[in-house]
Amino acid sequence: MINLELDLLRTFVTVAEARSFTRAGERLGRSQSAISLQMRRLEDRLGQTLLSRDPRHVVLTAEGERFLPQARQLLRLNDQILAGLIGVEVEGEVRLGAPEDFATVHLPDILGEFARTHPKVALTVTCDLTLHLIDRLREGALDIALVKREPLGPDLGVRVWREPLVWVAADPGVLERSAVAPLVVAPSPCVYRKRAITALERQGRAWRAAYTSPSLAGQHAALRAGLGVTVLPREMTPADLTILGAEHGLPTLADAEIALLRAPTAVPPAAERLAEFVLTSLDRRHALEAG
């Protein structure tokens, strides 16, 4: 019988999230050499290579990608058992930032469950554009944030969600009334706005911003009024709107990603617990959808 050491699992999860032995060591209070030794012990125990290393980056192997959700689940169960036996309950305020669409669709159930299991934690949620959320993290106004990022862009945070993007309108006829594509978008900077404009310009199609609103509800209202088309995650498309595609003359869109970022300063225990809770919950949701 092979037993997994929880300290080794915690080191693996931290390295996977930090993408660096040095940053993982800083977070865990250990030297880089100690982190490296622990990872070798875990890989020897499993008989699998979990990480691919080079002088600048640490990347999960295919085996590491599969093992990460299971490692998080074991750590979360361990922490819940200890909290129940010892009676130590995490408390304090957590300031979470998230894009409005992701917060509206994916977070309510997760945050509700977290609030029920951690009644002494006060949650403050701020919805904003990704670049504004990153600024708030740097300024110390947020503890953790979920942000949109490009799959092949900068190594920004820990990936927690991948979402197919689609073109959406109330009626395909909105494109037929003008040779210039009318866009319903958020103000710049916005990942989906940039994605829509880049795709149209690559196709050689003219466009104009027909309606601009920072509010997701405002954008939906403009779409229902027939003012234009927009780019949305497929799962977040309202049922009364129409998904458009190549048959309507629109270019294909690559997936976008949601990543979790922690503040550059020390994150309070309650915020760290919420970060782990969100990661584990989204891992579980992915597994259910895949099954």
How would you characterize the overall build of this protein?
With 291 residues, this protein is of the alpha/beta class. The chain has 3 domains: 1-88, Orthogonal Bundle (Arc Repressor Mutant, subunit A), CATH 1.10.10.10; 90-161 and 255-291, Periplasmic binding protein-like II (D-Maltodextrin-Binding Protein, domain 2, 3-Layer(aba) Sandwich); 165-254, D-Maltodextrin-Binding Protein, domain 2. Helix content is 47%, strand content 21%. It contains 11 helices and 12 strands. The strands form 4 sheets. The chain has a 5-stranded mixed beta sheet, with helices on both faces. A 3-stranded antiparallel beta sheet has the order 10-7-11. Helix 1 (6-18) packs across helix 2 (21-28), helix 1 crosses helix 4 and helix 2 crosses helix 3 (32-46). The longest helix has 25 residues, at 62-86. The two termini are 28 Å apart. The model has no long low-confidence stretch (mean pLDDT 86).
Structural class, from secondary structure content? alpha/beta
Q: Could you tell me the strand content as a percent range?
A: 15-25%
Distance between the termini: 28 Å
What global shape is seen?
elongated
Helix fraction, binned, reads: 40-55%
Number of helices in the DSSP assignment: 11
What keywords describe this structure?
291 residues; three-stranded antiparallel sheet; alpha/beta; five-stranded mixed sheet; D-Maltodextrin-Binding Protein, domain 2; 11 helices; 3 domains; Arc Repressor Mutant, subunit A
